[in-house]
Structure formats: C-alpha cells, structure tokens
Design goal:
By secondary structure, this protein is α+β, with helices and mostly antiparallel strands. Helix content is about 25%, strand content about 25%. The strands form seven sheets. Strands 5-7-3-14-11-12-13 form a seven-stranded mixed sheet, sandwiched between helices.
C-alpha cells in the first residue's frame, strides 16, 4: 500500500497493448534507444528488500536526540498553562519546548506550520508542546508527563450541508473554479424523459503511509540540514528558509528514500518544522517521527463529501443535463476544498451542466491532498449515478457511457489531446466477459452468496510543471543525470534513467541518476501525477542536448566530462489549447454474503489509456496499487468524527482498516498505448492516481448488481450491507 515495494506482488506477464486494442507485442529490451517501456527492475529494489535503504529517521548523526509531540487536550480553546516539571525530571529528558520558549517563526503561507507560535488551539491534536530526550521512549514518556491546562471553547466539527456558515468558494484546492455552469441545467433536468436524483456520501479518509511523517534536523552554525520523508525537497527547503529567515542556499533537504505519501507528504508538515526548532533549541540533531495515532489530526485527510447528482436523459440514453453539487468541510486554520465536482466537467456530453462546490469551515484538522483528490470521491458519485441512470433506462452501463462520449471537454470546450475511454471500456468488457452478463440484479447466487459485476470509468488530469536537470558525459563512457526529484516508491530513479538512456541512445546500465537532495537542480514535488512528466521532460531535454554536443565533439572528453543543463520553464507551464487527461475503465466482480453481510471482491480489472507507458513493471505496480487503495475506499476505509470529543474515532491501523493481502483479489491492470504529441517529449501521462479513481464505483455497482439494493454511503461494511438487505427484502 505504500508504493515503495521493489515490484508488484503479482506480475502475470510482461506484455503490453499497442495503439491497436488487443494487439500484443513483447516488451522491448533495455538496449540503446529502446529503454522506454521496458519492464526494468527498480534500481533501489535490492536496497529496500535488504534493509539498507536509509529513511529519514535512520541517519545516525552523533549526539542525535528524539522528540515527541504533545497534542492539545481540547477540541478548541486556548492554552493557559504548561507544567513541564514532571517531564523534565525524568531520566534522559533534555527539554520541553512550549510556546513560551521556542523561536519565533516568520508567518507561513500554510498556517498549519505555525506550530508552538501561540496559545490558541484551533482543533484537537494541535501540537502544544514538544518533549526532547535521549531516546524515543524517554521522549514519549516525557510528552505524557507534560500537563497542559486549556480554557475550552465550544466547538463545531460535524459536516451539515445546511450549515449556516456554508459558502461557495471561488476556487477548489487545485485552482479550478468552484462553480461551472453551461446552459440551463435545472430546466433541462426537469424536462428530461428519464431522471436520476440521488445523494452519495464519502466519509473522511486518512493517509497512512508505512513510514510515518519523520524528520531529522541538524544545525551547523546558521546552516540547516534536514532529512525528511517528503514528496518534494525543493518545497521543503523553500518553506524552511522562509520560516527561519535563512537564504535558501543555507538549507539542505535530503529525501533519499520515502516510505509512501499518498499526497500527505506533498508539502511540509509540522514534523520538519518542529525537528528544526528542537535541534536549534538543544544544539543537537533531533529526530521526530510523528506517532501514527496522531497522523489523522496533523498531516491532512480526505475531507468528507456529500454529493447530490441529478442526471437527465432522453429515452435513448443521451444526457440532457448533469448537475453535480458537492458539500465538504475545511478547517478554520486554512481553506482546502475537495474538488469532487470537477470530474463532471470532463466525462460526458450534456448540453446543460452544473458543477459546483460548497464548503463548511469547522473546528477540525485541516484536510489536504490524498491520492486523486477530488477525482476519487467525485468519480465514485458520478459513476454510481451513471449506473443508476443505466438501470432506469434499461440500458447496458458500458453502452450508456459510450453513447455519451464527448468530442470536446464539456467544461472548457477544448479538444482532448487524446481520449481513448471508449477503447478502454470495449477492451475491458471483452476481457472481463461482460457480454454474457445477465443485467438483472440479485439473480446470480451461490448458496448464501449473491454475485454481481460492475463497471465504472476513470479520469485524471495529465499535466507538467517546470523543472531543471543536468546531464554529464564522463570519460569512462558513463553518464550522470542530476535532478531533485523524489522517489516515493514509484520507481522514479529507474524511469528517469530509462528516459535518459533513450534520449542519449545508450544502454541503460551506463546511466546513473542522482535524486533526492535539494542541492541538485530544482524540481517540483512528486504529486498530482505530474512527477515523471515534469522531471522526465527536463531530463530528456538535458540528455538530448548532450547527445547533440557529443555528436559534434571530436577527440577524448575532458577529465570532468561534458555537461548540459535544461530548464523547462516556459514550456512545461505554457498554456495548452488541449484538455489533457488520462482515462480508464474499471470492472469488478463482487460476492455478497447474505448471512454475514461481508463483501468479497473476486476480480478487479483496470484498462487504462495513459499516454506512453515508460516502464511496464512499475506502471503495473502503480495501477494495481491504486486499485487496491480504491478497494479499501469501497469496503473497509472510513473515519467518523466524534461530535463531543472533536476528533476522528478511527486514528490507527487497528481501527482504520486498509486492505491486507487476504483482501486483495484477482487483480489485473493493463493499458492501451497512446500516441499523444501534446503532452511532453516522452508522450507520457501520470499514472500514480488514476488507478484509484474508478475502483470504488465499480465495486459499488457490482454490489448493487449482486443484491438489487443501492448503497450510497461508503464504506460498504457488513452492518450497512445487512441493514440494506433487510430493508430491501
């Protein structure tokens, strides 16, 4: 689940689709000019399985101390006193930092990083003190011995769509408009031959990477070095320099190996700021590994959404109106709007469209990015409603989607750079055996089990941002590529080497990649399915220029070699006249136990159209990892907000259930290669997130087909299933 294993658990074959659906050819070898697309093993795989890959908390700096946070004991209020005497009396305790004795930071753009800067407590779990000791155990004991007194204030933590403070934001978290309207959606819906009007609910979801948010900080005079578990070292350096008033060249950030992130490590979190503060206060290196129990209240979460879908259609299935209205929550610390209505601006052709968001500020921890933010919950609701519409029309769900395939992106009117959703649906249906499906729900039985199948489409934006990279040819015939990319378990080191070898026209084993340090050429973080597309563009350009220079060079190379540098500013961030997205189709088979209410997914199939696949092995790992995470979203993952206590009730892996190996069914992912010239020099689209996007809807639709009962509130736990079966029966 962390995305940092050296290979996918099941590798059924090393073949892939070409542009012709269903036509196969073996993967190319990794010889000169053919490295792209090959199923190359991860370069760091052996280090990881041998335990030699070093993570943020594993740097044995001399004199290193350890820190442990003290969370606020109230859901909202103000700290009136902090008694540290008992903690400081414990063996091995070095210090307890409080708002009274920590350095003053510059005001951060992200207010969640203003830790220990004042007495106000905006939500439960807010850090109000930090214990520092010789060992993690001593630090934990000291944190528990700190006595914090607070003046509690009334708190409001439960999402209510009718909340008096709800408002319509101008933008969502990624800068999309909060509202898009075309035509007269309400009138078109009222006049439709067939209508679906329904509400879907997705609970709060949490990032639980295998490696918790961890940082080790060390000061050498006025120079700060941090080893941190982050999706982007360049961003961490910029933020730390601003907070501590340092020139950026006096801050070094190392993110050599990262044990998963899923969006929660996309920007700096309090661990890195507190570790730096503690290191400055004690004069010693300090490691802070955030306790897992406290992650949900500190590092972000997927905000809950209540989504009303209204679909209107002609009797032949052609949509006349799509109305997608989302209500979600944000914290009072900073605004973050889960952009769940945005997918309805991409998917289907309808002359009338309403895609809108409302957000309620509450006394809750700040929501943030979680794999496919917006698209994952939004497509669950949209694709479930499309299944309801197909049922109301008496139409095959695959054919309904095909019938409403747009020529241009509905929200923007732009042409698609490439869109092969129909091919994904057709190929997936063929391979899944969809043609023989009995469309009637609740008719296929195996003893107490009800069996059903479901389908859902998927989409995710394909984009890139500027990056810089250098490429150097060395006299020994090898090449060094340097860029501050971050490998969060996706195989970035390997794929960037493949891009370089392809551009240089040399064997892959002659290319060395250096990533994960802020003193390398700067690059954006690993997020938004833009990492490889952005970094690879800069690496490709640097290597292409180097190949050109080498072709014109005569004689031996200089002792230090020949180096080229690329900066894609002005290219990667240039406006495009095209709507650029990846697409996919998910198929699921589910068995529902009518006695226990347990749902088992027997089969999952995903067929994707995501540009040129750069590494068959790591791509399949990413797709299946996303699909597994979508399975958890559908069946096991969910959190509830305790109204009285003001915190998430499911805050660790004992109560927040992620899929285990026994939960993962027969799962298969494959793809259709696209030739898209409007993306980047590699022709690739991001693949880290689209795997999760349609999975939950496909499973939910399969459960409906199995039972004849429509469940509209995730996760589909046995209690909900049994209640629905009893009510439906």
């Amino acid at each position: 689940m962390t995305g940092n294993s050296p290979g996918t658990p099941t590798e059924p074959r090393d073949t892939r689709h070409t542009g012709a659906v269903g036509e196969r050819r073996p993967d190319r070898s990794a010889g000169p000019g053919t490295a792209l697309g090959a199923p190359v093993e991860r370069r760091e795989g052996r280090q990881k399985v041998a335990g030699t890959a070093r993570y943020a908390g594993e740097y044995p700096l001399p004199g290193r101390a350890h820190a442990w946070p003290v969370p606020a004991p109230v859901a909202r209020g103000r700290v009136t006193a902090v008694d540290t005497s008992a903690a400081l009396a414990l063996p091995g305790v070095l210090a307890v930092l409080t708002p009274d004795d920590v350095p003053r930071l510059a005001e951060p753009e992200d207010a969640t990083l203003a830790v220990l800067q004042g007495p106000d407590v905006p939500h439960r779990g807010w850090c109000v003190a930090l214990a520092v000791a010789e060992t993690p155990e001593a630090a934990r004991a000291a944190a528990r011995a700190v006595r914090v007194t607070c003046a509690a204030r009334p708190h409001d933590v439960v999402l209510d769509p009718g909340h008096r403070d709800a408002y319509e934001p101008e933008e969502t978290n990624a800068g999309f408009p909060g509202r898009v309207v075309h035509g007269d959606p309400k009138a078109a819906f009222a006049a439709a031959d067939v209508r679906v009007d329904t509400v879907y609910r997705v609970p709060p979801l949490h990032n639980h990477p295998m490696e918790p948010h961890t940082s080790t900080a060390h000061w050498d005079g006025d120079r700060l070095t941090v080893y941190t578990s982050s999706q982007g070292g360049t961003t961490v350096r910029e933020v730390l320099a601003q907070l501590f008033g340092l020139p950026e060249d006096r801050v070094t950030v190392v993110c050599e190996h990262v044990g998963g992130g899923f969006g929660s490590k996309g920007t700096p979190r309090p661990d890195v700021v507190l570790a730096a503060m503690a290191a400055r206060h004690t004069g010693r290196p300090v490691t802070l590994a955030w306790p897992r129990r406290h992650l949900p209240s500190t590092v972000g979460h997927r905000a809950p959404t209540e989504q009303r879908l209204r679909l209107g259609a002609h009797a032949d299935g052609r949509l006349t109106a799509v109305l997608h209205e989302v209500t979600t929550h944000t914290s009072r610390v900073r605004e973050f709007v889960e952009q769940a209505a945005v997918p309805s601006r991409v998917m289907y052709d309808a002359p009338a469209l309403l895609s809108a968001h409302r957000v309620v500020p509450l006394d809750v921890p700040s929501p943030s990015w979680m794999r496919a933010p917006g698209e994952a919950p939004g497509m669950y609701a949209l694709e479930s409603a499309m299944d309801e519409l197909a049922d109301a029309l008496g139409m095959d769900p695959v054919e309904l989607r095909v019938r409403n395939e747009p020529e241009r992106e509905p929200g923007s009117g732009q042409p698609f750079s490439s869109r092969h959703l129909v091919e994904c649906l057709r190929e997936g249906a063929r391979r899944f055996g969809w043609e023989g499906r009995d469309p009637r729900p609740g008719v296929r039985r195996e003893g107490p089990l009800l069996i059903g199948t479901g389908v859902a489409a998927a989409t995710y934006p394909a984009a890139a941002v500027p990056a810089t990279a250098t490429a150097r040819a060395l006299p020994d015939g090898t090449f060094a590529v340097r860029i501050n990319a971050t490998d969060i378990g996706t195989g970035a080191r390997t794929v960037l080497a493949q891009i370089a070898a392809d551009a240089l026209g040399v064997p892959l084993d002659r290319v060395r990649t250096e990533i994960g340090r802020s003193d390398l050429p700067s690059a954006w973080l690993a997020g938004g399915s833009m990492g490889t597309a952005s970094w690879g563009w800069a690496v490709h350009d640097a290597c292409a220029e180097l190949a050109s220079r080498l072709a014109a060079h005569t004689g031996p190379l200089p002792a230090d070699g020949i180096e080229t540098r690329a900066d894609t500013a002005g290219q990667a961030d240039a406006d495009s006249p095209y709507a650029r997205h990846a697409f996919g189709a998910h198929f699921a088979e589910a068995a529902v136990d009518t006695v226990t209410g347990e749902t088992r997914v027997r089969r999952l199939l995903g067929i994707f159209a995501a540009g040129r696949i750069l590494n068959a092995r790591t791509a399949r790992s990413q797709f299946t990892g996303g699909m597994t995470m979508g399975l958890g979203m559908a069946l096991t993952e969910g959190s509830t907000m305790d109204r009285a206590f003001g915190d998430f009730a499911e805050a660790d892996l004992a109560s927040y259930h992620v899929p285990a190996h026994a939960d993962v069914p027969d799962i298969e992912a494959d793809w259709i290669d696209e030739d898209d010239p409007h993306l980047n020099p590699m022709g690739s689209k991001g693949i880290g997130e689209i795997g999760i996007v349609g999975t939950a809807a496909a499973i939910g639709n399969a459960v409906h087909h199995a039972t004849g009962v429509r469940f509209r509130h995730l996760p589909l736990t046995p209690d909900r299933i049994l209640t629905g079966l009893l009510a439906g029966g």
